[in-house]
Amino acid sequence: MKRHLDWYAEKEPNGRLFVGERGAPFRRSTFGRKWRRARAKVGLPEDFRFYDLRHTGHTLSTQSGATLKDTMVRAGQSSEKAELIYQHSDDERQQEVADGIDLRVRAVRRATSQASSAALEV
């Protein structure tokens, strides 16, 4: 982010973050060309849209432990419904959740079993 601000953004306090090649406001057609080149350069599929990055960011945020409110604040969302549109869950994440549930159930069973054994010994 710092490099982008240093190299590309206007320097004034209220300056634009994204400026066109000739210092004018960034135009959609210019962005489209640059996005397609960047996407190809890093090997993303042609149907990967720039906006998909927003979905990815929201999903990674919650997977890293952020609450719904945390992600709403980060993204500037005003409603839970709007925020939930951007969050996704894949098979890998579902397996992580299942593994977490399994660990908790096993811990409770172990604690219950140990408590029962201790009560029998008394």
Polypeptide structure, described:
The protein is mostly helical and 122 residues long. Helices cover 64% and strands 0% of the residues. The chain has six helices and no strands. It is elongated, with a radius of gyration of 24 Å. The chain starts with a helix and ends with a helix. 2% of the residues are buried. The mean pLDDT is 87.
Number of strands: 0
Helix content: 55-70%
Cα distance, first to last residue?
64 Å
Order of helices and strands: HHHHHH
Major sheet description: none
Shape: elongated
Number of helices: 6
Feature tags:
single chain; 122 residues; mainly alpha
How would you briefly describe this protein structure?
The chain has 122 residues and is mostly helical. The protein has helices spanning 2-7, 28-42, 52-63, 68-75, 80-85, 91-121.
Secondary structure: elements and pairs:
Elements: H1 2-7, H2 28-42, H3 52-63, H4 68-75, H5 80-85, H6 91-121
